[in-house]
Design goal:
Layout lengths: L1 H30 L7 E15 L4 E5 L2 E9 L1 H11 L3 E11 L5 E12 L12 E2 L2 E2 L18 E5 L4 E13 L2 E15 L12 H6 L3 E12 L6 E13 L2 H4 L3 E11 L1 H48 L10
Antiparallel strand pairs: 1-2, 1-3, 1-13, 3-4, 4-5, 5-6, 6-7, 8-9, 9-10, 10-11, 11-12, 12-13
Helix pairs in contact: 1-5
């Protein structure tokens, strides 16, 4: 009976020992992914800010500029692209809508971002675009990979339509959560005019005819949860200028927008709660369960050896009466 018990314990020890690496190195890369139907809205604000008044064609100080960023998973497009890509694909249709202090639209830029649901690597397919312009992304955008590493990444800049390094700057504490801090500075770069403009008749084509060009620079900052790869906070010190503008505006350079853009407090809280929930699920497969199973296998192995040792212990010799 003891021999049977030791064999059962040994079998369970082997089972749990094999499950530990299987969960981490086989189940995790396949089971953890971005859902194709994700929907997310984030509101950011710059308070105060400088904004071009297109009615007077003058830059003005305003109390607040609001940026509404929407990410919506396009399930139908994901399924279509997956047929050719042969892997799980996520398609995000995003919109960055900028509103002035009166709530009226200043500009809005749509994007379609296509990426691998597991690794967040870009997937190049028809429809990948920024503001109607076809692009070919390199690197990440919006989200870092699961189990983010302490290194620089290539990050896609939607304004410039190019990728540049975003630099790892170390570990930070953000509201009780240990995060990785990343920073990217885009130097002054000529960028396209938004196709949606706030004043009827003022179009990118009209501005191009006057010789006006649009330039932009930004310092981009992200506080990223290393487990899920999701930013828990993002900020930008953002500047835009219209140059060669004397013909239309009476001066060579006019500020179109300048301000320190930050996530609104209520969205900071909701984002942190969502990241903590998803973090637990990822840690179950990468840490909690594998280490629990590994420890349990050692305990079961020790019990199996102890049971087997007791089984092999010689029985005491009978005592014969004298």
């Amino acid at each position: 009976m003891r021999r049977l018990a030791s064999l059962v314990l040994l079998s369970l020890a082997v089972c749990f020992a094999s499950m530990a690496p299987t969960l981490r190195w086989y189940v995790f890369p396949r089971a953890v992914k971005i859902p194709p139907n994700q929907y997310q809205v984030t509101i950011l604000e710059a308070k105060p800010a400088t904004l071009l008044n297109y009615s007077t064609l003058k830059a003005e100080q305003v109390d607040k500029i609001t940026i509404i960023q929407t990410l919506k998973g396009n399930v139908a497009e994901s399924k279509r692209i997956e047929k050719d890509a042969g892997r799980d694909v996520v398609v995000w249709d995003s919109l960055s809508h900028v509103a002035g202090p009166d709530g009226k639209m200043v500009s809005q830029i749509p994007e379609r971002y296509i990426f691998d649901a597991h690794t967040q690597d870009p997937v190049h397919a028809t429809g990948e675009m920024v503001d109607g312009d076809a692009v070919r992304r390199e690197g990440i955008e919006f989200k870092w990979p699961f189990l983010t590493e302490k290194r620089d990444y290539q990050y896609f800049d939607a304004q410039a339509r190019t990728s540049a390094p975003i630099h790892y700057k170390g570990v930070r504490d953000f509201r009780g959560m240990e995060v990785y801090y990343f920073e990217q500075t885009i130097p002054w770069t000529r960028v396209p005019m938004p196709k949606s403009m706030p004043i009827k008749g003022i179009t990118p084509e009209f501005l191009a005819q006057t010789g006006i060009t649009r330039w932009y620079t930004t310092k981009r900052m992200f506080w990223v949860d290393p487990v899920t790869g999701a930013p828990v906070n993002g900020e930008e010190i953002h500047q835009e200028e219209l140059r060669n503008a004397r013909k239309l505006m009476g001066q060579d350079t006019v500020t179109a927008f300048a301000g320190h853009v930050k996530m609104r407090e209520d969205y900071l809280r909701s984002t942190g709660e969502l990241v903590r929930t998803n973090r637990t699920y990822v840690l179950l497969l990468t840490s909690y369960l594998p280490w629990t199973f590994a420890g349990l296998s050692l305990v079961l192995l020790a019990l199996a050896l102890w049971t087997e040792a007791r089984n092999r212990r010689p029985a005491p010799e009978p005592v014969t009466p004298s």
